[in-house]
Amino acid sequence: MSTAQLINSIREKSNATDPCTRSNYFQFKVDDTELTLSVSFDRKIISGSVKYHLVNTGNADEVILDTRYLLIKDVKVNSLKTEYILSEPIPIYGSALHVPLPTTIDHSSLIVEIDFETTDKCTAIQFFQGDTGPYVFSQCQAIHARSLFPCFDTPAVKSKYTFTGKSPLKVTMSGRPQETSEPNTYVFSQPIPIPSYLVSITSGNLHKAPIGPRSDVYSEEPSLAACKWEFEKDMENFLQIAESLVFDYEWERFDSLVLPSSFPYGGMEIPNMTQLTPTLICGDRTQTKVMAHELAHSWSGNLVTNCSWEHFWLNEGWTVYLERRIIGALAKQEYKAQGKSEKEAAEYGEKVRHFNMLSGWNDLKETCNTFNPKFTKLVCDLTNQDPDDTFSRIPYEKGSFFLFYLERRLGGLEEFDPFIKYYFRKFRYQSLNSSQFVETLYEFYEPLGKKNVLDSIDWEKQFFQPGLPEEPHLDTTLADEVYAYGNKWVEFVNNSNNNETADVPFTEADIATFQGGQDMLLIDYLVEKFRKCKVSPHLIRKLPDIYPRYATSKNGEIKSRWNELLITNGKYTPEDQLVQDFAEWIGHTGRMKYARPGYKLLYNGVSKEFAVDTFKKYRDFYHPICRTMIEKDLNLA
Ligand code: BES
Ligand code: ZN
Questions:
Q1: Given CB 3.0 to 4.6 Å as the disulfide criterion, which of 51, 87, 393, 559 pairs with 34?
Q2: Nearest atom of ligand 1 to the alpha carbon of 289
Q3: pLDDT of 500
Q4: Do residue 360 and residue 313 come from a single domain?
């Protein structure tokens, strides 16, 4: 098969257009978009108007936009008030807004203006009482932007934007703040073309503090100092390392916003205003890699974008790959600062990267064992699927391991690094699919005499086979310390035969030298091993006294694993304090990474009724996306 045939065959195996939009996006080019959003805290809605400057490249006689649970008030084309049709809604994708083009005008370039309002069914925004006043924020990825404003809701379409936010409280949106003298009005410009899912608005009692020469962090006043402390050590370092891996940061400033606790994700890469969960503010700087991840999206995702959610690995797989490169490079820097040689430091940096990859590999194994195999492919068919339902660690981990595999096969870091720069430069400001990725590999490596390496890769298997890929060879130095200790536990459990009076030969001093990630790995390892070796609930209930550091940790990564270990094995009941504390924690933690497995743990490990009752008690606190997912998880939908 020739290279051209190969590229074709990969392309033909996924949808030619984005199946998750009902718009006719492929017939237009969007030159510019003006979006005004006005927040009403009283009515708990956002009203707005959007003005699209379109070039009709596909000879279309109508413009079709996505909407979902939106009220459309008025439509104009080239200033002429126009009749429109809102199609019957379909559950996942919403109603298509059909705007026929008036026959009296020239159809080649158009200005389409729409006035609209969100409704109480809007899935993109959440209104609530913040710590110091009313608060609203949006979350549009993957296909919720259509619930905030009528749009071509596909990552295949990009546009420059001017945003105007109106609210009695401070507003942030996805761009650079501009001067304005109008009261209660905030204007932002986004000169780099971005897709609809990166459009965002937040309004509340927001304050800011500097965390780097080109970075501020925003939050409500009471947590501002803690937010600043958590990130100020790493922020500019992350930026400079990322710039040396890819190329200069193009967005001018990298600011971030720590949201209230109902924020459903760890982070979201809103251009110029990354959103972060408050669970990162744990006072030990162990969760800053989420910041590195969102920063890496400035290149992978925001400059270079997947053309549909079927190719989501191009966003998240690349981002995890870069995130781990950044974390490895930072470890190298810190080791060097301790006086180690360049070579030693580089080796240590790689060990740290590999340690992080190992935990990713464990996540990938777990997901492949438990998730619908249809969605464990690197490239999925999303026809008639809700991207929220197919979301998992797969695009993240399978994607980043695919890149790691290529890095190795193509000759290691030295050979792969120039490709990173080439790829991101080639596709910046664009959206692409997986076949264009392969095409670019050939374009870059063929002249370097590596066509044979690429020819020997089974692309079909890499992209379309479900389940685990070939196991990567990882440096396990840092993990081995953890495994050796964990194995002592396994041995003890096997030998003590669950004798309740046996002395437990473990104390917290054993793990005094463990660093952040090693603690998590240990608990994960014990979860996995105890599943197989039937440990007595009596012994499990001694654990909090043996490891008070874990039992009292405020860090969500520890808390979630620790409770999994105890609740799965300790035969706890709803009356136990441990269960009540855990229930209360997930009742106040909207980050889905913790809340969803938390409810499943209560459901399977304590009782179905208790899980459902707990959820009902806290239901209103959760973001609509999170609420829906938990309802599905608990079979309440
Ligand atoms: N873009 C994602 C969050 C997202 C994905 C929102 C899909 C909606 C739909 C963000 O960059 C992300 O991956 N966040 C992770 C952070 C982690 C991998 C460091 C998260 O939320 O856990
Ligand atoms: Zn991400």
A1: 51
A2: 19
A3: 79
A4: yes
96 CB-near residues (< 8 Å, 6+ apart)? 22, 23, 64, 65, 66, 67, 86, 87
Q: Is 507 within a domain?
A: yes
Q: How far apart are the first and last CA of the chain?
A: 48
Domain match, 175 and 227 both: no
Asked if the structure places residue 284 within a domain, the reply is: yes
Cα–Cα distance measured from residue 219 to residue 276, given in angstroms and rounded to the nearest whole number: 10
Give, to the nearest 10 degrees, the angle between helix 342-370 and helix 516-533: 40
Ligand 1 nearest-atom number relative to CA 320:
18
Residues lining ligand 1, judged by CB closer than 6 Å? 141-142, 265-269, 290, 293-294, 297, 316, 391, 396, 593
Query: Read out DSSP for 72-117?
Result: EEEEEETTEE---EEPPPBTTTBEEEEEEPPTTS-SSEEEEEEEEE
Burial 80-89 (b: 16+ CB within 10 A, else e): eebebeeeee
Asked whether residue 197 falls in the same domain as residue 211, the answer is no
The CA-based diameter of the chain, rounded to the nearest angstrom, is 90
Q: What are the distances in angstroms from CA 143 to CA 87, 342, 386?
A: 18, 46, 8
Nearest CA to ligand 1 atom 19: 290
Owning domain of residue 34: 21-204
Q: Which residue shows structure tokens 């992209």? A: 463
CA–CA separation, 83 vs 72, rounded Å? 11
Closest ligand to residue 397's CA: 1
- Of 101, 146, 114, nearest to 35 by C-alpha is 114
Ligand nearest to the CA of 323: 1
CA distance 52 to 25: 12
**Tell me, what's the pLDDT at 499?**
80
* pLDDT-flagged residues of the chain (< 70): 516
> Which residue has the CA at smallest separation from atom 21 of ligand 1?
266
204, 224, 239: which is the final residue of a domain? 204
Q: Is there a single domain that holds both residue 28 and residue 177?
A: yes
Q: What is the pLDDT of residue 534?
A: 83
- Residue ranges of the annotated binding site for Zn(2+) are 293, 297, 316
What span, in angstroms and rounded, lies between the C-alpha atoms of 319 and 306? 12
For residues 166 and 63, state if they share a domain: yes
Q: State pTM to two decimals.
A: 0.97
Q: In which residue are the tokens 């993240």 written?
A: 396
The DSSP-derived string for 182-211 is STTEEEEEEEEEE-GGG--EEEESEEEEEE
CATH number of the domain encompassing residue 403: 1.10.390.10
pLDDT at residue 212 in the model: 98
Task: Indicate which residue's Cα is closest to atom 11 of ligand 1.
Answer: 268
**Are the C-beta atoms of residues 368 and 289 closer than 8 Å to each other?**
no
Do both 26 and 175 map to the same domain? yes
User: What are the catalytic residues?
Assistant: 294, 396
Q: What is the 398 CA–ligand 2 centroid distance (Å)?
A: 13
Please tell me the distance between residue 249's alpha carbon and the centre of ligand 1 in angstroms.
Answer: 20
Atom of ligand 1 nearest to the CA of 293: 19
Is there a contact between 262 and 622 (Cβ–Cβ < 8 Å)?
yes
pLDDT of residue 516: 64
Residue ranges of the binding site: 139-141, 264-269, 293, 297, 316, 591-593
For residue 437, give the nearest of 321, 304, 319 by alpha carbon: 304
The overall average pLDDT reported for the chain is: 97
Q: How far is CA 576 from the centre of its chain?
A: 34
